[in-house]
């Protein structure tokens, strides 16, 4: 499989296929069973990628970890009100993981970036490792991306969690929460895209999309 189809396939498997699996399984299996069904495309993709290409998909691993944590919460407490808290708590924890990873030599965005470059080109893992060793500017940008994404996810989900605590209107909360979620992810993605363009203009090593 060449690089562009693999990249598009990864997007489908990490976003579209879990969403479809959840909604197809929900009427028959309920929330918990639908969450379990949504993990199947991720597990299948990670297994195939590892066995066939010797490539570990960091993004899929993060999505899978979040889903498994959501399943654990739903197993013990599963009601419509709880589900309003479930998403912001889990996404917020992922944001905190981004921030904690800054304490390590290689923060979380390093692994996401390396995974993306490995998917986009042959020998991408070794190439990204060399960029990391030889380009201090890349190191600084990767750490800044980790900080911005960590703060963005943590703050956005803290706001969503507070809304769920303070307001009783579940339908209104769901609408506002969804808007905040998409606005935050859209803003962070746009910022990442602009940051990549800025670095490329400075002739630094190319950076992978978030």
Can you characterise this structure?
Helices cover 85% and strands 0% of the residues. The chain is mainly α and 210 residues long. It folds into two domains: 1-78; 80-210, no CATH class. Helix 4 (108-120) crosses helix 5 and helix 6 packs antiparallel against helix 7 (170-201). The protein is globular and about 55 Å long. The two termini are 22 Å apart. The model has no long low-confidence stretch (mean pLDDT 78).
Compose a concise summary of this entry.
Helices cover 85% and strands 0% of the residues. It has helices at residues 3-53, 58-76, 80-101, 108-120, 124-134, 136-166, 170-201.
Share of helix among residues? over 70%
Look at the structure and give the mean pLDDT: 78
Shape: globular
CA-CA gap between termini: 22 Å
Q: pLDDT below 50 for ≥5 consecutive residues: which ranges? A: none
> Number of helix segments?
7
Main sheet characteristics: none
Structural class: mainly alpha
Estimate nothing, just give the exact number of structural domains: 2
Along the chain, the helix and strand elements come as HHHHHHH
**Rg to the nearest angstrom?**
18 Å
How many E strands? 0
Q: Beta-strand percentage? A: under 5%
List keywords for this structure.
210 residues; mainly alpha; 2 domains; 7 helices; 0% strand
């Amino acid at each position: 499989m060449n690089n562009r189809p693999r990249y598009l396939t990864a997007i489908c498997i990490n976003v579209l296929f879990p969403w479809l699996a959840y909604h197809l399984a929900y009427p028959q299996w309920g929330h918990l069973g639908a969450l379990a069904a949504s993990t199947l495309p991720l597990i299948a993709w990670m297994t195939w990628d590892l066995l066939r290409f010797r490539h570990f998909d960091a993004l899929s691993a993060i999505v899978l970890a979040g889903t498994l944590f959501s399943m654990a919460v739903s197993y013990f407490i599963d009601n419509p009100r709880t589900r309003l808290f479930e998403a912001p708590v889990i996404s917020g924890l992922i944001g905190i993981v981004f921030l904690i990873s800054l304490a390590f030599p290689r923060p979380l965005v390093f692994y996401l970036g390396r995974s993306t470059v490995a998917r986009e080109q042959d020998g991408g893992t070794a190439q990204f490792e060399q960029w990391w060793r030889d380009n201090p500017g890349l190191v600084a940008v990767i750490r800044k991306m980790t900080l911005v994404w960590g703060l963005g996810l943590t703050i956005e989900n803290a706001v969503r969690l507070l809304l769920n605590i303070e307001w009783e209107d579940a339908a209104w909360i769901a609408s506002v929460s969804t808007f905040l979620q998409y606005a935050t992810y859209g803003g962070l993605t746009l910022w990442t895209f602009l940051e990549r363009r800025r670095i490329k203009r400075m002739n630094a090593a190319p950076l992978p999309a978030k």
